[in-house]
What does this fold into?
Amino acid sequence: MQIQEVSKIAKDGLWTNNQALVALLGLCPLLAVSNTVINALGLGIATTLVLIASNVTVSLIRNWVRNELRIPIFVLIIASFVTTVGLLMNAYLHELYNVLGIFIPLIVTNCAIIARAESFASKNTPAKSLLDGLFMGLGFTAVLVLLGMMREILGQGTLFSQAHLMFGPSFQGLQLTIIEDYRGFIFAILPPGAFLGLGLMIALKKYIDMRIESRKNLQSQQPVTQPLV
Amino acid sequence: MNNLFKNMLIGGAALTAFAFISSLIVAVTNESTKQQIATNEREALLRSLNVLIPHDLYDNDLYNDTAALYSPKLLGSKNPVTVYRARKNQVPVAAIINSIAPDGYNGEIRLLIAILANGTLAGVRVVGHKETPGLGDAIEARRSDWIKTFNERSLSNPLPEKWRVKKDGGEFDQFTGATITPRAIVKAVFNTLKYYAVHREELFNTTPPPLISRETPYADPRS
It folds into this structure.
């Protein structure tokens, strides 16, 4: 695999086709679980693991699955991995599992996973599919974490609260209190605030894309040649 | 026609094969994590129980010395409610009742109410709720100290007429902007105390039932 192929897959997953900001998939868990950074990180990593596992598996069997059966089989694969990840989290990250609650099994409804299985993994090699799963997952996690930071600071005035849920008791003191004695902006904690936050992020991304585009146009402006009469 | 049938058969076989493999993976993971998950849940519950009744107060198997209490009116559920019984040298020391406050703002609130042998409250903790974040969720021990105002209360402290929120003429604080939530909890704690006063004897004497549904704590109540 060439480095250009890898960087194209990476760029797609992290920016150009970011599942949360461009494809707008997986918004239900995104909005519900991004109320703190640690929750966002937990769900993001779980989703990335499922994405990688399902992409690789779908890619491995892509030549043996009949066309009419591919959707049920993809769903089977994704559901099995989500259940497995859920069980593993319940066993080894029990407190975080309890906090995330119903959103771990709900990873199965994240359309980004079946979208990648259908549009990429079923048509590419396992190695590429693994990378695609990884970068799509990282892109999704990045949006989750950024939104989580915004909502946690605005909603609670802290950052990294409850870090021990994910990283163990030694991380208990990781919480940063950004705003002292903060009464809390409840709108940021509830789903409507998440919607607005996501909307702002999408707008920001488009703005950045526009700026990059216009700078590229400026640089490549050629003098117009007169057609020969 | 034969071709179509053959295709269907192969398709069905393929689906079955995949279903079998997926189920196998899930079953294997389930088996290998079962122990750890049971341990986790047991530890989490024990931690919640020990926050209310510390280790040194009892010497029995608190987790398993349970009974099922049935009182829809006083304990808040039409299903039997678990009580964890603490004893020292066979003498009853405390009972932790997993009551429910049915009239929370957004549904039922699940509680662990610890009552000492003499009828005094050792403490109360919320183990499950759907109240509004930032408003009603001040009932959680990690959000505010409100729930600790129940420590050392009893049916005579305050007197029965004072077992309400201040807005209703009682002695318990409510939250600014959220009265329904604390009101529901004060009522549930009062009702549980009343139940305990009447049923104390049989509560400690019934043998544990064979199987009982366990409460999985909502969050770790750090005191």
Chain B touches chain A through 28 residues (CB under 8 Å). Chain B has a mean pLDDT of 87. The first strand of chain B starts at residue 66 and ends at 69.
